[in-house]
């Protein structure tokens, strides 16, 4: 498969079986036991997915997640944790995680979640110049499905895997209402058994990024139904 995974887990009893499982599936795995080393590795190497424990010996995994996102990491982050509460799940998603599994978990489900995130991983290679809009000629807002990049006012938006997928789904039917169920099925797969609050968190981050970019589109909530992406006049 060729995908590179960064595993940030200090417990050998969990990390070693995960290493063997991932490597048996053909993934290249780098394992570190501390959060700050995970942040350093993520900034220096190209990883398609980060599998991240929250209970790390130096800094909290949520801080690791926040730091790597702030450093520009845009691929998938899967959190593993003994904290199974709804609040902790939402906080994890709010700082940029794409998926969340509470311990103990089954390896089969973990691999299914891993495959789902990797399918949505942005290409590691740099796009060709023709795929990057010229500032003068670019439309005010553009989603490029091939390169998995979104541009607002000619500038690329820093989006996570899930943020891009939600935005691309809404943009594909711009002006039409996409139900919450449709978004959950298409972006998180039908295997997702967690709270749909993850969708609300992702929508909230998207709204902030669209607002910060000064683009001409906005995500509108249709109460009790779903969301639509519409052009701001």
TrEMBL record:
Species whose genome carries this gene: Arthrobacter flavus
Protein name, per record: Response regulator transcription factor
Keyword Membrane appears in the UniProt entry: no
InterPro entries attached to this UniProt entry: CheY-like_superfamily (IPR011006), OmpR/PhoB-type_DNA-bd (IPR001867), Sig_transdc_resp-reg_C-effctor (IPR016032), Sig_transdc_resp-reg_receiver (IPR001789), WalR-like (IPR039420), WH-like_DNA-bd_sf (IPR036388)
Modified residues (4-aspartylphosphate): 53
Coiled-coil residue spans: none
One Pfam family hit: Response_reg
Keywords, comma-separated and alphabetical: DNA-binding, Phosphoprotein, Two-component regulatory system
